[in-house]
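Re: your question from the hallway

Yes, I did run it. Sequences:
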Amino acid sequence: MINFEEELKKFHPSLEVEEAEDAIYSHDMTDMMDILKEVLKESKDND
Amino acid sequence: MKCYHCGAALSKNDFCTSCGADVKTYKTIIRLSNKFYNEGLEKASVRDLSGAVVCLKQSLKYNKKNIQARNLLGLVYYEMGEIVAALSEWVISKNMKSKKNIVDDYIKAVQSNPAKLEEINQSIKKYNLALIYCKQESYDLAVIQLKKVLLVNPKLIKARQLLALMYLKDEEYNLAAKELKKAEEIDSNNTMTLRYLRELEVLRGKKINAISDRKDTRVTYKVGNDTVIQPKEYKENTGISTVINISIGLVLGAVLVWLVVMPAKIALTKSDASKEINRYSEQVAVKAAEVEDLQADIESLKNQNKEIQVKLDEYEGDGGVLNSYDALLTAANLYMDGKATEVADIISGIAPETVESAKDGFKTVYGKINGEVMGEAADEYYKTGYSAYSNGNYEEAIENLQKAYTIDNTSVNALYYMARSYQKSGDNENAARYFQEVIDKFPGTKSAMDAQANLDSITEEE
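Structure:
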């Protein structure tokens, strides 16, 4: 049975065009490759 | 594939042949990123857009520089109506790979129509406004806004899902189903859409059960291949209820006849009567016209009859042609017997205008008889008249002398002695008139002088 109030919470505002620039800049671009590089760099420093 | 450390091309080995860096984990990460990209591509190709988004995001989590995965994610967002999200991905892609990147075309396509982009932006604002209305429990306003959003941006999945949710809340299941079906056509495997559809089926089932509960007064069972439906409770009609039902039926039937059938019947009768009146009116008009024509014919025939009668009278009357012919024949017969005076009487009775208008044969016979007999007849009348005068028989004298003078108006003696006969008989008035005629017509004659003397004596006597 759907809980209407709970379902409403699942809907979030869409990005407007004016907000696109901020969204791009605040985009979390960290990926596994960055993490790998960080890990390898740390291990190299420890050595 | 290039080394993450020095950028040299990698071989099959797990280390870089250029800088010696360990690339085993790196290669695994790249492979995983590509694997998720492939899955995302497969899902997008079967319109599992939300599934594709998950895979492509995962692919980018492993390798943010997977340009193909990012471009495809932008396309999937675009297809789901999320234009701004699509543009964001494409701009990042463009920054990562500025040359030979397909997103140039995508961005150009969107930017080439700024009016459409603005329209879509307005629709996104309306969607956000609808979401605010929902949180304020102004659901009617939210529905209105969502409908406007979908008119401009029909692929915006979450707008359709929210609208369907509104309809589900209002128990408008058909409308909710319609929106969810459209959402399913855009994104075939969207978890939220599928969940709402399942919920819709459950709610519909409950509604149908509720309706069937209200209709549980019927019992359905099968006899062989036939389905029998009958009321659960069957009440046997009693005699009184039958009579009451029949009475009600009769009353209702009478009312129905009075309200429906009678007006139609009356209207039909009126229409027929009106047609009949019109038909008779036309016949009367035709008959009246015929009567007028006949009346005119009668008048014409009467006039013709009068004209014919006049002509007939002209032929048969006293002065008519037929009588004149008859008289002429009689005169001719008497003429052959030598009866001059009788012939003269008859000939003098024929009107001169009849002779004028008669044919040549009539004129010839009339002229011959008149020329030969009339002089002889005048002499004979004069002799008879004078003889009577001499004998003192003045009445006979007047009659014969009158005829003699009528036939021969040059006979002064006939006129004189006719006047004397009147004088002798004591009729001085006629005597004076004829004496004066003698004086006037035959002046200077002896008869005129004698007439003057006699006239003087009459005057003296008076």
